[in-house]
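Posting for a labmate who doesn't have an account.
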Amino acid sequence: MADDTQDLDLSLLNEIADGSDEFIVDSITIFLEQTPVALTEIANNIATGNWAEAGAAAHKMKPTLGFFGMLNTQAIIQQVETECKAGGTPNTGNKFAEAKALVEGNIPALEKIRAEASARL
């Protein structure tokens, strides 16, 4: 991948959608609604040192990232989860910030794809 700020491959989503624009719109909508909440939950728990909750929230996020082909981000979130479950490290917050920035960087592309799929409905 030439641009490591872009971590998005919708091949799996498109394969599962099997041509259904409605499925694509619904899946992206759920991602856009739930992911910022999960990111905030992880950030707040890291900030307060609630490592168990931060790790649990990171764990729940991994399948969604995989579904949207955010494999680099998924790997970073895995590291965050592992560090949180071990009680955190001085670098855990920075690692999480990197993953958060990657996810947030994909939001405009996802919104555009959702709008295009929605227009075809």
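Reply:
Got it, the structure tokens are right above this. The mean pLDDT is 94.
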